[in-house]
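User: Predict the complex.
Assistant: Input components as received:
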Amino acid sequence: MNQRTALYAEQLRLGGRMVDFHGWDLPVQFESILTEHLHCREAAVVFDTSHMGQLRIRARPSALARVTTQNAGALAVGRCQYGFLLNEAAGILDDTILMRLGDEDFLLVVNAAPAAGDFAWVRTHLSEGDVVLQSADGGWCKLDLQGPKSAQVLAPLTDAPLRSLGYYHVVQARVCGHPCIVSRTGYTGELGYEIICGAESVPTIYGELLASDLVTPAGLGARDSLRLEMGYPLYGDDIDAGTTPFEASLGGFIRFDHDFIGSAALRAAGEPQRRRVAFAAASRQKAWAGNEIEHNGHAVGRITTAAFSPSLQVSIAQGYVPADLATPGAELIVKTPRRDLPVAVAHRPLYKHGTCRTKEIRTT
Amino acid sequence: MSTIPPELLYTEDHEWIRVEGDVGTVGITDYAQHALGDITYVDLAQVGAEVAQGEEACAIESCKAASSVFAPVGGRIVEANAELADDPGRVNADCYGAGWLYKLAIASEAELSKLKTPADYEQIAAKD
């Protein structure tokens, strides 16, 4: 029996087609993946992301900074930072967003499948302080409101200062009268907010968001094609414990301004032999996870995730290639079961018009 | 409830065929297009190719999956719907009309008798 979020019945009622996602029953789509994707690029959509894990950590920043690549001490209260939990060999245990809610009050938002392992890992390695795993089976929920019109949708429902809430800022505020954590973060490349709330609040908030003419519900299918257009990795598929941040082309998020688990291995590692890259095809024909990538007739890597890009109208993908081929423009062949698909390594993001960093916040 | 036009014949694999003289026009059913979701690519049938009954004639990809489309009867492909190269969404929007996939010259009329009537297919689609 799979786990279900507090919105399972409501999403079924809205026409959600449920699939298994790491032990959770979640909607892959409602009306149409393409429509939901494009609606997120043009207006706003809401995803139920309650399956993701949340670690509420109350500890001194110096203690937490030993466990995460993010430097908790250098992160201002009210700010978020992307980073990793690494093992001693610098393999990625999870990619995370660290939110600093108070001097010694942090929220680490983690992926669904590794959440329990993350919790055990942090609890084991945190030298002091306290960690609580807030998950959907314990009554915690998360909604992702994403799209250029997100602020217009959310503003009438919240006392959060949306006009001054910058990219990767976080605030504790009320939404529909319920106490929530609201962060300007997301996984789509668009302006948007993640709303963390209790299960008792989520039906009201979800309903009020959907009451806006600007918002439609969206599922995992659109979430995947949106993040692929941005070149963001999917944990478990594009990155895992056998991958370092440098191999994953995520070295830009590493600062050696503090010692953390895995930092010694990262420093010693040198240049990676292989790198994660994004691909774009000239065709609509899709690559598939696991397909071999060839260069000059030699197998050089594999596709890790792929989708049709509704914004670009071509197929796109991610995978690993030797470092010398990990340059935009490099031409490669993906061996799909049907035929050879020519692709080129692409600059990330593939979709260049995302609004996530906009400074012009319209609330009316 | 999916649409099943009465004038067509069907396969268990959710293809339909419209027979006009010795030419059959082939597509996928409303049930199939709905199950597949947004169709993003059609690997068009090859004009001139000979296909046997039940053999793959072309393929379609949706956001979720890649699927073979089998020939309801054997024959030679005489036309592929080239409009689908740039607009495969026609298969979702109008699977029995503008979303047709290919036409074939039917080799053996006897094979038509192995196909499902609309009433038979309705039961298949209801069971799946």
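The beta strands of chain B are 9-10, 15-20, 23-28, 39-43, 50-51, 56-62, 66-70, 75-80, 102-106.
Let me know if you want any component modeled separately.
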